[in-house]
């Protein structure tokens, strides 16, 4: 948050909003109309291509109201689909939630206004200190069915804005308490490690099972491998590059092995780390590359290109991979604290990858 910007939401109101998104979330203020301007241009400058977001309006009667969407804002002029979107109002510290009833019209990308929730609730309307509200009446044939609320309970029929804020929803990591208690008995841990060390693929031509890690940027693929290796090395290691970033830390396809002890034998597994997936088109791992990886066409240390997949005629393409070079198992790594705010584009990407994996396994 910019140090000059002060949130108008109370701590209790922020907690009430975050409780609808997952309590491990926090709100980061990115746009404040009283500072940046009551114009569509100012709103889009600070908020486009950022998601998920919570938009909040304040009027001169003291009402606090707004909406949430997982979709990134743009100036396309089109409606976008979001089945998790909702609008809300506050009665003191109590949040009144009104879920979207027609997800196909959840949010409209309007150029000359601020956040537009289905042409039902629009903040910074038409480049002014105004809001637009058109919920209609459930008894009217002209009833807008995208969101259900009354103007009185939402904003008290006062369309004059005193301010408008947009917050980006971010993960709030807390380490005070473990999210679950795990009690390891020494004998049980040794038995599990022995089972992993003694595993043998059923086909003799495959000396080690190749395991592919797939997940969004920041989900923890590289950290998963580092944790796995650390258990067998007996101390913390960091072979795979890991970190927190909006873009993928891993840029290359890596095949990673683990020794049972420092000077021990290699475990019968090869962990394959990939570039992270991103919601934005043309960024992150190209989903079309998954088929090449599954079928063993991608060499170790190959540098990914978000816009293009490796073609058969390209240098480095493995044209005749053996069974031992292919992927035998796929692990989907998902940040559990962000499942509730996962974008629909990411859901579609993961489903498409799953279909590709299933087809390749037949």
Structure commentary:
The protein is 20% helix and 21% strand. The chain has helices at 11-18, 33-36, 40-47, 151-155, 186-197, 221-233, 289-294, 344-360, and strands at residues 25-32, 53-59, 64-69, 79-80, 86-91, 94-99, 107-108, 116-117, 121-123, 131-133, 161-171, 209-215, 254-256, 269-273, 329-333. It contains eight helices and 15 strands. A six-stranded antiparallel beta sheet has the order 1-11-2-3-5-6, sandwiched between helices. Strands 13-14-12-15 form a four-stranded mixed beta sheet, with helices on one face. The model is unreliable at 137-142 and 242-249 (pLDDT under 50). The longest helix has 17 residues, at 344-360. With 362 residues, it is an alpha+beta fold.
Keywords:
8 helices, 15 strands, six-stranded antiparallel sheet, alpha+beta, single chain, elongated, 362 residues, 20% helix, four-stranded mixed sheet
Give me the secondary-structure topology.
Layout: H1 11-18, E1 25-32, H2 33-36, H3 40-47, E2 53-59, E3 64-69, E4 79-80, E5 86-91, E6 94-99, E7 107-108, E8 116-117, E9 121-123, E10 131-133, H4 151-155, E11 161-171, H5 186-197, E12 209-215, H6 221-233, E13 254-256, E14 269-273, H7 289-294, E15 329-333, H8 344-360
């Amino acid at each position: 948050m910019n140090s000059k910007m002060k949130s108008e939401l109370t701590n209790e109101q922020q907690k009430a909003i975050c409780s609808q998104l997952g309590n491990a979330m926090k709100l980061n203020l990115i746009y404040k109309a009283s500072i940046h301007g009551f114009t569509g241009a100012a709103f889009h400058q600070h908020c486009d291509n950022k998601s998920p977001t919570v938009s909040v309006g304040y009027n001169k009667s003291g009402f606090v109201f707004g909406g949430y969407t997982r979709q990134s804002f743009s100036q396309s002029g089109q409606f976008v689909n979001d089945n998790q979107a909702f609008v809300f109002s506050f009665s003191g510290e109590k949040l009144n939630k009104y879920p979207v009833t027609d997800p196909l019209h959840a949010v409209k990308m309007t150029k000359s206004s601020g956040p537009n929730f289905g042409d039902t609730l629009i903040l910074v309307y038409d480049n002014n200190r105004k809001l637009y509200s058109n919920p209609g009446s459930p008894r009217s044939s002209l009833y807008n069915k995208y969101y259900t609320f009354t103007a009185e309970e939402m904003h008290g029929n006062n369309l004059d804005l005193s301010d408008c804020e947009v917050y980006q929803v971010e993960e709030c990591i807390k380490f005070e308490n473990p999210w679950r208690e795990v009690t390891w008995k020494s004998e049980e841990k040794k038995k599990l490690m022995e089972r992993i060390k003694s595993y043998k693929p059923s086909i003799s031509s495959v000396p080690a099972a190749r395991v592919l890690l797939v997940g969004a940027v920041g989900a923890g693929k590289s950290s998963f491998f580092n944790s796995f290796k650390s258990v067998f090395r007996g101390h913390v290691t960091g072979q795979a590059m890991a970190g927190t970033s909006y873009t993928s830390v891993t840029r290359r396809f890596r095949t990673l092995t683990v020794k049972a002890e420092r000077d021990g034998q290699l475990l019968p597994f090869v962990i394959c780390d990939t570039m992270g997936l991103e919601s934005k088109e043309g960024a992150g791992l190209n989903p079309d590359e998954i088929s090449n990886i599954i079928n063993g066409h991608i060499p170790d240390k190959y540098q990914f290109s978000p816009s293009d997949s490796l073609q058969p005629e390209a240098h480095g393409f493995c044209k005749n991979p053996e069974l031992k070079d292919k992927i035998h198992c796929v692990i989907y790594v998902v940040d559990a604290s962000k499942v509730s705010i996962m974008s629909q584009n990411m859901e579609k990407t993961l489903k498409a990858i799953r279909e590709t994996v299933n087809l390749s396994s037949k």
